[in-house]
Design a protein that fits this description.
eight-stranded mixed sheet; 42 helices; alpha/beta; 1034 residues; 15% strand; single chain; six-stranded parallel sheet
């Protein structure tokens, strides 16, 4: 019998109320949940009187098997073995589906409901939206015309994408119809609350400034602090928005630092001025009334968007009902409708279950929570860990867990239990994790007060009783000095460092403790895992580990629509159908060439050419086989036909030629299942081919798992993929990769709290305070989730954690919890590490590994092979082509030319630099993760007088404008607003002497002068030459 801790025993035995169990990583929650089930069965409750819900089929199957084994081992529970197969140990989706099938008559649907792939419905959404917009274009409705005029330029592609994105988020709501019906009343009738939140945001930043200023007093003499206090006094003590705005406008140059200032003091001063700049960027309105008017100006477009989405929702609902196909979101909504609208069904379900157990409760969505509440009777047992909530992108709401946890802690509405003892990891690993998370996770950022309630306690005494080794089990921070002149990237450097460290541990018989056998043994390759935030460098690691002679298995999700073998299958099916229909030669030519050249038939170019030119296609093997198969089309189901095709072309045998057979077989199985689902929905093989074409053309992505595993190999996977797993030695790298906040750059956004976020549209686009509030909210949510993701990553380690990153230069003393002002600005895992770097110094180990010459030669050879084209007889000459000026009033140059390869490379480089400048914070630039060449050019621009002499101004990168009077549109690369003038800076790759550029900038000058009533200076900046010139007014 296991020896339970007091907290575990309480989690097993407690009864009488809703219970929430906060179970930290490695705390044995699954064992506790299983034991609770067994205790209930022993007390007379039957297994089919328990509802055990989890989130994946794999987790449900594992839970059912654990309970089955426990029942088998427990005397007196033999009868429960007969009941377990019918027990509700299942996923939310499966349980909801069972409810809908059982009570289908009350919602007038069949009990033979088909669950279709989301891709099918997404493609239909696009078709229906096209229909709606086409109809509106014909009607020329004023509201619709305004929406198009405001948000479409050239075409309506971006608007359609925005509409579908908004609808996809609204569609997740269980009451989406009511949400759409009441949207305008709930989101656009009163702006007081929104303005109040905006003012609170400013107040919060002012509070941060006061706190930073108080901390600065420990590092500067009284005179300097007095100067700063006097400088900021009116802003910090203003009683109204208007007073604070006036104070802000009157600020001059910030007091200079005293000579020989302390590094910590400098850091605090930078923190203070950064917050001040944020306030300046937010307080751009003269009055609160101006804010209200801007918000009001977006309502008409919101009304039209809602109108379109309501129409889309009605048409899509009708399509689903007519075709009787749904996705699991629909099924959840139908289940809620059944239970909420039919009291007798609700009472029947409520009385059916002695207890509702929810595993991984931190991953629950609002819809699932609504469903549980409808059938609950103060008998919900929730197990989870908010610190491991990492699925916000799947609509999980971790704050449901937090709200319940806090409520049960502070009231008697439920019972809160904490499982903090960890049985997975060594004491040193847990001490290190606590050291880290005490410094940057709390209620505000991260969602859990780590130091107060969530520190892990060492629990597995076997490590110290029989598992002691001579090795150091504390974490290591391996840092390296990156040489800008080296031909390898930072990612390659990190892969080599990890690979060499693994080889060193294996060669020197590093010892690990096997908890299952209770013995200490030499480490093996299977004991290592590499965890990265993103999968983009997996193949790079694979290549380097192969070079080092280390076996490495990649565990990741792959994309079906991006794989060549899927294209081959699609074209094979296409050719068969075209032959059956007796299509003309031109229509089947592409499909024929594709499969003839593929690994299925491997015809030479000469054979293919001969077949096409001499009209001998019908004599070729691909055609003959496809013609034979075409005779099966009329009398064979799509799935059976697909199997016949695969067999006839000997598909699986041919896979041996291209390697990685397992991966291809998984994809083949996925296609087979997809065809099966479509077949059940009444699709013919021709319909299925059309559907596959639509998937490729629409950009829809079909994801599936392929694990190229090996029994004794290192593993590499994303942190998300690692959840629920454990490994003796864990490596963490790629820390410089930026967090993903790209969605915030979209012009049209949707947020559950603030609704549809639109800019004000006049002569240019201007964001409202809603965009400001959504940015702050989203950034805090993203930072919080990344902190939790970091927790998931580090808690996978049993024996040791090893982090790898470039040498950190800033060494600022740090004590206690990092301030929220700093943490809210985290934008990478590296920024987290930097903020607590002083506490990591005892664990740092500098390593410098230089790849051997043969690796560099092999790398260069591979690059040359990838870039080499047979172009010996091809000469590239510049051609000048006059471009017809279709729209003269659009400011741009009128000459195009076809470029040489060298010019193309320069232009690509210039584009990359331009993209960085688009997103750069000019006052607080973060250049981590940029290539050395790009970094050099960015730094050169930042050091130019155009920037250094204007840091007191406000910077607007990518300033887009629409001049409705002149019917012109353009984007200014950079606009700097100063008190007495405006500055326009236009980036050019190299040449800044072309007079066509002067005309372009003078067009910009004229617009901006009208708009601001200020003088406007214009400059051209050469990225390559690192110089600039002023453009004089013509």
């Amino acid at each position: 019998m296991p020896s339970w801790t007091p907290e575990q025993q309480q989690a097993i035995d407690e009864e009488g109320k809703n219970i929430i169990v906060s179970a930290g990583a490695g705390s044995g929650k699954t064992a506790v949940l299983t034991e609770r089930v067994i205790r209930k069965l022993k007390s007379g409750v039957h297994i089919n009187e328990l509802l055990v819900l989890t989130f994946t089929n794999a987790a449900a199957a594992e839970m059912k098997e654990r309970i089955r084994k426990a029942i088998r081992k427990t005397p007196g529970l033999e009868e429960e073995m007969n009941r377990i197969d019918g027990a509700y140990i299942t996923t939310f989706d499966s349980f909801a589906l069972s409810i809908v099938k059982k009570y289908h008559t009350v919602i007038n649907c069949t009990n033979n409901i088909q669950i279709t792939d989301d891709v099918v419905i997404n493609i239909k959404k696009q078709e229906l939206l096209e229909e709606i917009l086409d109809e509106k274009y014909l009607l020329q409705d004023k509201r619709f015309t305004k929406l198009i005029r405001d948000f479409c330029y050239k075409d309506d592609k971006e608007l359609k994408k925005s509409l579908l994105d908004i609808y996809q988020k609204i569609e997740l709501k269980y009451d989406k119809e009511r949400f759409l019906e009441t949207y305008l009343d709930n989101y656009t009738k009163s702006w007081d609350k929104v303005i109040g939140e905006y003012l609170s945001s400013i107040k919060g930043k002012i509070k941060q400034m006061r706190e930073t200023l108080a901390e600065m007093s420990s590092y500067f003499d009284g005179d300097y602090i007095t100067k700063v206090e006097d400088y900021l006094y009116n802003l910090l003590h203003g009683d109204s928005y208007e007073e604070q705005k006036k104070a802000l406008d009157n600020l001059t140059r910030f007091p200079s630092l005293p000579k020989n200032s302390d590094e910590k003091g400098k850091s605090l001063k930078k923190q203070l001025t950064t917050t001040l700049d944020e306030i300046k960027e937010e307080m751009i309105y003269e009055s609160l009334e101006e804010i209200r008017k801007e918000l009001e100006s977006t309502v008409a477009n919101q009304e039209e968007i809602i109108n379109i989405l309501q129409d889309l929702d009605k048409r899509l609902t009708l399509y689903k009902e007519q075709e009787e196909i749904y996705n699991f979101t629909d099924i959840s909504r139908m289940a809620i409708k059944i239970v909420s609208e039919h009291k007798e069904i609700r009472e029947e379900l409520t009385s059916s279950f002695h207890e509702i157990m929810v595993d991984e409760y931190q991953d629950t969505s609002d819809t699932q929570e609504t469903f549980i509440n409808l059938i609950a009777n103060n008998n919900v047992y929730m197990v989870g860990d908010i610190k491991q909530s990492i699925y916000r992108f799947r609509n999980a709401n971790p704050y449901l867990f937090k709200q319940k946890y806090d409520t049960y802690r502070d009231t008697n509405q439920g019972i809160k239990i904490d499982l903090v003892k960890n049985f997975r990891s060594r004491r040193e690993v847990l001490e290190d994790i606590n050291l880290l998370f005490n410094q940057f996770m709390d209620d505000e950022i991260g969602g859990a007060d780590y130091k107060a309630s969530h520190q892990m306690v060492f629990g597995n005494m076997a490590y110290e009783e029989g598992g002691k080794t001579k090795d150091n089990h504390h974490m290591e921070l391996l840092t390296y000095n990156y040489d800008k002149t080296t031909p390898i990237t930072k990612d390659e450097q990190e892969a080599f460092i990890i690979g060499e460290d693994i080889k060193d541990k294996v060669n020197n018989n590093y010892q690990v403790f096997d908890k299952d056998t209770g013995i200490i043994r030499p480490i093996e390759y299977k004991d290592f895992v590499i965890l990265l935030d993103k999968s983009k460098n997996f193949e790079l690691y694979k290549k380097i580990f192969e070079y080092l002679g280390i076996p490495l298995s990649i565990l990741k999700e792959e994309s079906l629509s991006k794989d060549n073998d899927i294209l081959v299958i699609k074209n094979l099916l296409n050719l068969i159908v075209r032959i059956k229909r007796k299509d003309d030669f031109d229509s089947l030519k592409y499909s024929f060439v594709s499969i003839a050249r593929s690994y299925l038939f491997e015809l030479s170019d000469e054979e293919i050419y001969d077949a096409l030119v001499k009209d001998k296609i019908k004599e070729t093997k691909p055609y003959i086989i496809c013609e034979e198969l075409s005779h099966l089309l009329d009398d064979t189901s799509p799935t059976e036909f697909f199997l016949q095709v695969i067999k006839k072309v000997e598909y699986e045998e041919h896979l041996l030629k291209i390697g990685n057979v397992t991966s291809f077989q998984v994809r083949l199985e996925y296609i087979y299942n997809l065809i099966g689902n479509l077949e059940e929905s009444g699709y013919t093989i021709e319909d299925i081919i059309t559907h596959l074409d639509a998937i490729f053309e629409s950009g829809q992505d079909l994801k599936f798992n392929v694990n190229t595993d090996n029994s004794n190999s290192c593993k590499i996977m994303t942190i998300h993929k690692s959840k629920g797993l454990e490994f003796p030695i864990c490596y963490f790298a790629g820390f410089a990769s930026k967090f993903n906040l790209r969605d915030l750059k979209e012009r049209i956004l949707f947020d559950n709290t603030y609704g549809i976020i639109l800019p004000v549209v006049t002569d240019f686009y201007k964001d409202t305070i809603l965009k400001t509030l959504v940015k702050e909210k989203t950034k805090q949510e993203e930072v919080s989730e990344k902190i939790r993701l970091f927790y998931v990553a580090l808690t996978r380690a049993k024996e040791k954690m090893i982090m790898v990153t470039e040498k950190i230069e800033e060494e600022t003393e740090h004590r206690g919890l990092v301030s929220s002002a700093i943490r809210s600005k985290y934008n990478s895992f590296l920024s987290i590490i930097k903020s607590i770097y002083s506490s990591l110094l005892p664990y740092e180990k500098e390593v410098n590994i230089t790849p051997s010459k043969d690796y560099l030669l092999s790398k260069n050879k591979t690059k040359e092979e990838e870039l080499t084209l047979e172009t010996d007889d091809l000469k590239v000459e510049e051609l000048e082509i006059e471009k017809i000026a279709i729209e003269h009033t659009r400011y741009s140059k009128d000459i195009l030319h076809l470029s040489t390869k060298e010019e193309v490379e320069k232009m690509e480089f210039g584009t990359k630099v331009h993209q960085v400048l688009e997103q750069l914070d000019f006052k607080h630039p973060n250049l981590i993760g940029l290539s050395d060449r790009i970094k050099e050019k960015i730094e050169a621009f930042l050091k130019s007088k155009l920037v250094t002499e204007n840091l007191d101004g406000t910077f607007y990168p990518e300033y887009e404008f629409i001049d409705t009077k002149e019917n012109t549109h353009g984007i200014m690369d950079l606009v700097i607003e100063k008190k007495d003038k405006m500055m326009i800076i236009d980036y050019k790759l190299k040449n800044i002497d072309d007079e066509n550029y002067d005309k372009q900038l003078n067009g910009y000058r004229e617009f901006l002068r009208k708009k601001t009533n200020k003088e406007v200076e214009c400059y051209l900046y050469s990225i390559i030459d690192e110089n600039y010139r002023e453009v004089k007014e013509q």
